[in-house]
Structures are given as C-alpha cells and as structure tokens.
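Researcher: Structure prediction, please.
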Amino acid sequence: MTTPTTKKLAITELALRDGHQSLLATRMRLDDMLPICEKLDAIGYWSIEAWGGATFDTCLRYLKEGPWVRLRELKKALPNTPLQMLLRGQNLLGYRHYADDVVKKFVDMSAANGIDIFRVFDAMNDLRNVRTAISQVKANGKHAEGTICFTTSPVHTLESFVELGRGFEAMGCDTIAIKDMAGLLTPDYTRRLISELKKAVSVPLHLHIHATAGLAQMVQWEAVHAGCNIIDTAISPLSGGTSHPATEAMVAAFAGGEYDTGLDLIALQDIAAYFREVRKKYHRFESSFTGVDTRVFINQIPGGMISNLANQLREQDSLDKMDAVLEEIPHVRKDFGYPPLVTPTSQIVGTQAVLNVVSGKKYSIITNETKGYLKGMYGRALGEINPDVRKLALGDEEPITIRPADLLAPELDTLTREVGDKAKSVEDTLSYALFPAVALEYFNEREHGNLKPEPLEIETSLLEPVTTQNQRLAPTEFNITIHGEEYHIKVEGTGHASDAVRPFYIKVDNVLEEVMIETLTEVVPMQDGHIDTAHASKSSRRPKATADNHVTSPMPGRITAVRVSTGDTVEAGDVLLVVEAMKMENPVHAPVSGTVGNIHIQEGDNVNPDECLMEIG
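Model: Predicted structure follows.
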C-alpha cells in the first residue's frame, strides 16, 4: 500500500469496527457487512478498519462467529482496500499482558489472515509495551502505525506526546496515529500538537477522534490544515454521538480544495443508505448516549466504552447510578496516576468506579485487574499512584518497575497443551489464549453444531400459548389482583435467556417493565403436542445466602475459577473463586476461617449476589 505524501487527504472508514462498537455495542454481524463490501471496496479509502478492538470478544461471546473467519471473509470481499486492525500492544485483544511468543504468533496469524495495517497502542503510552508487536508487524512486511493515546491531566503535556511520536518513529513505524478515544482534543490544541509533531517526525500523521464532545469535525479540519495526512471517519448512519465524524460530511468539507479526498460523494451516499437500513436491525443494542455530551471533558469515557458501560450497569440493575459512576471515574483515575482511558485501562478504571458506587464503599471490592494495574503489570503510570489505594490492593507487596512482559515465560506451548484437541487450528489456540472460558464455550457449541447468536429482536415466539389437546396453558394477557388492587398485565416479549434466568418485557397498566424470571424447572420438549415427561426434571437451584459462613458473589457474573475443594482448610480472606463481571475478574474471599463444606457452583456457572456459592464450616 502507499503512504500519503501529497496534500491530498486520505480517509480510513470505521463502519465495520469502531462505528458499530461505539453505537451498537459491537453487535453488527458479518452477514450484514458482506453485502456492501463490493461498494466499500470501490470507494478508494486509504484503509478500512474491520477488526480488533472489541470485535474479537463479541464474535465469540455473543455473535457466535469465528473472529478469524470474519477476517478471512472480509479480506476476500475487500481485495483492493487495505484492512486495518486495532491492536493493544502486549495486551493484544485481551485484558492482560501476554508473553512475547503469543504476541508474535498473534501478529503472524493476523497478517496471514488478512490484516495489512496494524494500529498498535499501549493504554499507558508505555513504549516498552509496543516494541514486540511493532517489530513483528515489520517482520511480516506489514504497515506499522504507532499510536499516541491522547488524554488530558496535570501530568500530560504537549512535549510528552511529541516524545512519544519520536519514540514510535525510532521503532520504524510507517505512520503515527493520534488516538483521541474520548474526543478531548480542541481545535487550538490540535493545531499546536500536529504542528509540533510535524517538526519532530517525518512519517505521515493519522487522526482518530470520537465525536462525543461535539468538536470532532472542527478538530479534523484544523488537523488537516496543520499537516495531518489521514483522518478516521464513519459512514453517516454509524457516525456522531460516541462514534466519529461522518465520512460524507468530511469528504464534502474538503471537496474542491487542496485537501480534496477525491472520493465520490454519491457513491458514499449509496453506502449510507445501506447502513441506514442495517442499523434498524440492531435497535436493541442502541446506546442511549447518542448526542453531544461535554461531560466527557471531565470523565473522559472513550466512545467505544460508554454504551458497554451502560449495558454493564444494567446487568447490575444499577443503570440509575450512571451519573454517580461518571462522577466517580475521575477520582479513581487520579488515584491510579492519571492513565489514559482506553482498553484495558478504561475497563479497569470504569469497573472500579462501578464497584465503588454499587458497593457503597470505595475499594471494598478490588478486581484482579486493578491489583495488577497497581502492581505495575500494565506498565508505568505517568502520574503518582495513591499510596493508600495501592496499600489496600497489594498489602506489603512491592510494585514492579521492569517491562511487565519480562516476567512472563513463553506460554504458547502451554496454552496449546491446555486447549488440546478442542482447538482445530493455531488461530483457535490464540482465541483460547485471549478468552479461555468464552472460547471453550464457542468450541463446544461449534463441535455440536449449536452455534446460535443472541437474538436481534425480542423473542416473541416463546410466548405462544403451549397447548395440550387444545387447552391453553400460557396466557400472555390477563388481570391480576394484589391486596385488593387490580392490574392489567400484558406480556410483550422476552429477551435472551441466561441459564434459568430470562428477562420478560411486561406492560403493567400500559407501562412497560423489564422483569427477570428465574425458572425452577427445566423447559421440556413437546412430543406430538404433549409434554415429554421422560425429560422433565428439577433444575439445580442454589440456596439463598443467610449466614456469615455462606460465600456469595459481590455482583452478578460468571464463575471463571474455583480455587478450593470440599474439605480444604481456608483462612478468612483467602481467595476461593473468581467471578467475571463487566469483563473484569473479581476474586471472592473466604468470609471466615474454617473447612470448605458444600460447594454449589462450578466453573462456567452464572451466579447472583444473594446465592450461597459454598459453605465454610
């Protein structure tokens, strides 16, 4: 591919990755991408961002698509346009650092499956954490784009960003991106930043900015006139809000001048018409944060995170606490030494803020990722970390000062042995490395032909009355009387089940409510219109937590590890199990000392805070 060297402005299209990640919780399916690829490929974009970020996790977890299959299919459908991915340096696409051999193999396989441009960043702007990935990109003959994560704080200065630019150029990067994940840049600061970077480096500059604060179009205009060579945009139906400036708008803005993109506005509008219809299919996942929100200048929540943060709070039945969480995030960020908020630091800081608010007591629950961050396992913070918070998390343990990955032994062979024949390829092994529990579930469903994506629409088919010899057993509209008061009830639909728990959407006197229903018996099949009693059985149900020696989860989540067995002796404070919630791992500690008795859970189970997970005698 060619690197822009003239004044003509180059465009990277974000519709297939960050556009729907920011607005639709990353839920767009491959089936809705492929039909428009021929037209996208004909536009003449500098690149199309189509992979990386949250897409990998979402493909496995929710869409039941092979992420590597998606990449190969998109490469086949877009033969004339370079494909770009977002890579988190030593974090790859997961939430921890991986050993160098895993990082190298992941880059190798990404390149082999179709990635041409690797936008490589580190959430801490710690250059030690991107060297291995960038070096391997270059070894594969691909385009390496070093990435400056822009943020504002008392410790981040113009010169600190320029020094990062120099560092990326010294590593051999072909371009340098400024990644403004929250939309914090102002036109004046942008002009100064681009001008200083142009003096310090010779490679082209690329700007990525979210539209959250309402300044993105002005920022892009100033950046281009200051010397920026490439800008990121999203086709209009997937633009604005926490997404990005509209492609058509920016093409029109520069048309006819010295920075004319040369792109066909009519052809772009044809593509926009397609995505306008596609977006309607994903209304269930629409973010409620779709307009301008200048609070981002304070909370600095990145565009790709805010819709997921809302979903995470909803899962905790705490969506009403969103404002409190947004107010808490800057305090946590200060305690953590002002890291830029981008995956995974945005998740670490955001989740800790959620826990602080939901639990009602700051740092009473600390995730494994928070402990790792405060230990230095994600890199070096530019600011000072609150020593009291670090003490709470680490006790007397000393933080590290070396590159975190230097502590990691090669792990690819171990991972290969662990996953065994469940992995059918090197790509499968890498999927397992990034998301072990989710990948194993995907492999199992794939093996048995049970891959089924979460529904796009509320499942109304499950509400059809079940009949036996024409007898109606499941009415969907009725009146109920409670304490002498009569209410009209109408069941409108139901959402996706999680084990025995399913959300029902019910109108109570014409007011729509979401009600969580936990079934106490299994759903059994019908045989010739009759219930198949041979398969009817009582489903397992955990007892309620009622005593001090009952172990409970601090929040709804999924068990990813059980560290003890019945009969083990434990001390109060020992880690008994790990619950994954909001993509972070939360250790659950023994409330008392004693011997482990009944264990009511196993790895992979979904749990709730009021359940007794195990007993200590």
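Model: The two ends are 66 Å apart (CA to CA).
Researcher: Thanks, that helps.
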